[in-house]
Amino acid sequence: MQQRDVTLLMVIIILVGIAAWVVWPNNPGLHVQVGPLNLKREIKVHRGLDLQGGMQIVLEADQPAGQTVDGDAMAAAKGIVESRVNGLGVTEPLVQLAGTNRIVVELPGIQDPDQAIATLRQTGLLEFIDAGSTFLPPGLEVRTSYRETGEFGVVTPTPIPTTVLSPTQTLTPTATATPTLTPTLAPTSEVSPTAAVSPTPTPTPQRIVFRSIITGQHLKSAQVGQDEYARPEIDFTLTDEGAKIFADFTSANVGSYLAIAMDGVIISCPRIESAITEGSGRITGEFQLSEARSIVIQLRYGALPVPLKVIQNNTIGPTLGQESVEKSTRVGIIGVIIVLLFMLVYYRLHGIVADVALLIYALVTFALFKLIPVTLTLPGITGFLFSVGTAVDANILIFERMKEELRQGKRFSSAIQAGFDRAWTSIRDSNLSTFITCAILYWFGSNFGASMVKGFAVTLFLGVLVSMFTAITVTRTFIRLLYAIGGEKLRENTQWLIGL
Amino acid sequence: MTDIVGKRRWYFLVSALIIIPGLIAMGISLARYGSPLRLSIDFTGGALLELAFERPVSSAEVREIFVARGYTDTTAQNTSDANTVLVRSKDLESTEKATLEAVLAEEFGPVKELRFAQVGPTVGREVTRSAGIAVAAAAIAIMGFIIFAWRKVPNAWRYGLCATAATLHDVLVTMGLFSILGLVLGWEADSLFLTAMLTVTGYSVQDTIVVFDRIRENTPKRRGEPYELIVNRSLLETLHRSLATQLNAIFILVAVLLFGGSNIRQFIATLLIGLISGTYSSIFTAVPLLVVWEKGEVGAFFRRLLGRSRATA
Question: d(Cα B248, Cα B244) in Å, to the nearest integer?
Answer without folding.
Answer: 6
